[in-house]
Design goal:
Blueprint: H1 10-37, E1 41-43, E2 49-51, H2 52-68, E3 73-76, E4 88-96, H3 98-102, E5 109-116, E6 119-127, E7 132-137, E8 141-144, E9 147-149, E10 165-167, H4 170-174, H5 180-189, E11 193-195, H6 198-207, E12 212-218, H7 220-223, H8 226-232, E13 236-244, E14 250-257, H9 259-266
Parallel strand pairs: 3-4, 10-11, 10-12
Antiparallel strand pairs: 1-2, 4-5, 5-6, 6-7, 7-8, 8-9, 12-14, 13-14
């Protein structure tokens, strides 16, 4: 079956990629300003943090997209979707890891992606404090701070104990339905693991700093950039679980990184 993204003019893909990077620049500027001057902190109904910086970033990005691409849709964490019928959908997580941002831990970041016909076309992960940015576009490769990324596959004989793995927190595995036993199995089988927020873990997997990540129970904006970043780097992205909650939110769990690592990890997760 042909890839729907192939119908787009490559020049348009280059333009949209450039616009996504400009949006990431805007998000970084707003976040850095908030870190310098301060920001308000509140809690959502589910107890998670939201700050005035989250709101300001998404508002500014939505305004820019609306002026530049008035026929494109937008899906973001903090506001309702717009133009859901459009084949182009910008997906925004203004600050992923807001709790880290609130406590001045540097691993938070912004997630931006553009989908076309339900497929990832452009993705950006940006970490302002770390000065770390990963980005990719369909057919254009994955880039890390200006350098092309190409993931080498995992050595076939590497032991489970040496495989470098990032996990989302055990709480993620239990957030919407209790799959804590899967976390326990992964943690015991692959003992060389770390736990990071989605955005930072995705960046590590995309640039090959780790072999793979298993990220569980995410909304679309949490994982929107990862597929294109991983695939354009030569890695594999595999959704191992998705379901819809009582309020209609679709939740995703995925494994991604070096292909052999993804295959080995998926064997413990795919039912």
């Amino acid at each position: 079956m042909p890839d729907i993204r192939q119908e787009l003019n490559p020049t348009l893909v280059v333009e949209l990629h450039a616009r996504a990077l400009e949006l990431a620049d805007t998000a970084r500027a707003v976040i850095n300003q908030a870190l310098r001057t301060g920001f308000d902190v509140k809690h959502k109904a589910d107890g998670s943090y939201v700050t005035s910086a989250d709101i300001a970033v998404e508002e500014q990005l939505r305004a820019l997209i609306g002026r530049q691409y008035p026929d494109h849709g937008i899906i973001g964490e903090e506001f309702a979707p717009t133009r859901p019928e459009s084949p182009f959908q910008w997906i925004l997580d203004p600050i992923d890891g807001t709790e880290d941002f609130v406590h001045h831990l540097p691993t938070f970041g912004s997630i931006l992606a553009l989908y076309y016909g339900g497929r990832a076309l452009v993705g950006v992960l940006d970490h302002p404090v770390l000065n770390l940015r990963c980005h990719a576009a369909f057919g254009r490769g994955t880039w890390h701070n200006g350098k092309r990324v190409q993931l080498a596959d995992l050595a076939a004989d590497i032991s489970n104990e040496r495989l470098r793995l990032v996990l989302s927190a055990r709480a993620n595995f239990m957030r919407y339905r209790d799959e804590g036993a899967r976390f326990d199995t992964l943690a015991r089988t692959f003992t060389n693991h770390r736990i990071y927020r989605s955005c930072y873990g995705h960046s590590l997997a995309a640039i090959g700093a780790v072999d793979a990540m298993v990220d569980y129970h995410d909304t679309l904006w949490d994982i929107a950039a990862a597929p294109i970043l991983i695939e354009e780097a030569g890695g594999e992205y595999r959704t191992v679980r998705d379901f819809v909650t009582a309020d209609g939110t679709r939740i995703y769990s995925a494994v991604f990184g070096r292909p052999r690592a993804v295959e080995r990890l998926s064997a413990l997760l795919v039912e």
